[in-house]
From TrEMBL:
SMART domains per UniProt: Lactamase_B
Species, as recorded: Coccomyxa viridis
Domain of life of the organism encoding this protein: Eukaryota
Cited InterPro entries: Metallo-B-lactamas (IPR001279), NDM-1-like (IPR050855), RibonucZ/Hydroxyglut_hydro (IPR036866)
Ranges for domain Metallo-beta-lactamase: 63-275
Gene3D superfamilies in the cross-refs: Ribonuclease Z/Hydroxyacylglutathione hydrolase-like
PANTHER family, sorted: METALLO-BETA-LACTAMASE DOMAIN-CONTAINING, METALLO-BETA-LACTAMASE DOMAIN-CONTAINING PROTEIN
Name of the molecule in the record: G5317 protein
């Protein structure tokens, strides 16, 4: 039965600017993908799977990660990667190998840009019971009520267009995160029904970090001190260098800068962004960088 919510996803015009990626990366070893689909452990009960995505439109490749948290036999995924059959096969195969007979209970999104939600349709098929949570400020862009191209922008380079890949999530599988911060254990269903599964209380906090997207959030896994930071910052190139996401895909650069500073003030050990040519960044390193912003 189900009320279908078409998911509108963001695509970039002139993807060359999409994600930060310096010219130096074009000649980096990333062109020969080092990733084999394995989820590699980066902290206790936290692993990540990397992929080198050939960005459509532009002849560019970008490295990106999705993250998996384990709570006993229950699993929680952070973000769902880019669209395309090739990625979906790679992603789901690696996920099934990692989860085995465990259960994928929840997918939490940092935001709705296409390289974070593209494989949601494949996930929906592979794991029909999993719910998907995101911030209420991002909700209109995920349900089709609003378009990323219409987000008020403080810079002239901003140029996101959208297209519909119809992830068609039933409303019964959606959960909302509300406010400036909170516990993912408090996520609520728009239907008013109690969610079937939520992570243990005090295990996963979210913080609203707008700028790059209106409802972008980051997730702090408190037991390991790991911050999964989406696109609040990037760490790309050879050698990797910290940076803000590019204006072309960031409507509010001023707020993005403030969010990066707010991020560095959180209590964490290591922050992992989506586009990371290293293995995370320590809090002192991130603080040093944000002081220069
Ligand atoms: Zn983004």
């Amino acid at each position: 039965m189900g009320y279908r919510l078409p998911i509108l996803l963001a695509v970039v015009v002139g993807f060359s600017g999409l994600l930060l990626f310096r010219k130096s990366q074009l000649s980096s070893p990333l062109q020969q993908s080092p990733h084999d689909g394995t989820f590699r452990k980066i902290a206790d009960n936290l692993s990540r799977q990397g992929y080198v995505w050939h960005v459509p439109i532009a002849n560019r490749k970008v490295e990106l990660y999705v993250f998996l948290l384990q709570f006993g036999t229950d699993y929680l995924l952070i973000d769902a990667g880019p669209p395309g059959e090739e990625y979906a096969e790679f992603f789901i195969k690696g996920l099934k190998k990692e989860i085995g007979s465990g259960h994928l209970r929840l997918v939490v999104l940092t935001h709705g840009h296409i390289d974070h939600v593209g494989a949601l349709p494949a996930l929906k098929q592979a794991y029909p019971e999993a719910h998907v949570a995101f911030h209420t400020e991002e909700s209109p862009y995920l349900t089709g009520e609003a378009l990323y191209k219409d987000v008020p922008s403080d810079n002239k380079e901003y140029n996101l267009i959208t297209h519909d890949v119809s992830a068609a999530l039933p409303e019964s599988r959606v959960l909302h995160l509300k406010g400036s911060s909170g516990d993912v254990a408090d996520a609520v269903s728009p239907t008013g029904r109690a969610p079937k599964w939520l992570p243990p209380r005090d295990a996963l906090q979210f913080y609203h970090m707008p700028g790059h997207a209106p409802g972008q959030v980051v997730y702090l896994h408190t037991p390991s001190g790991s911050l999964v930071a989406g696109d609040t910052f990037t760490n790309t190139g050879q050698p990797p260098a910290l940076g803000l996401p590019p204006p072309r895909v960031t409507p509010n650069v001023t707020r993005a800068r403030l969010s990066a500073k707010a991020l560095a003030a959180l209590q964490f050990k290591t922050a992992f962004c989506t586009h990371d040519s290293a293995t995370g960044v320590s809090r002192p390193e991130l603080q040093k960088w944000t002081q220069s912003l």
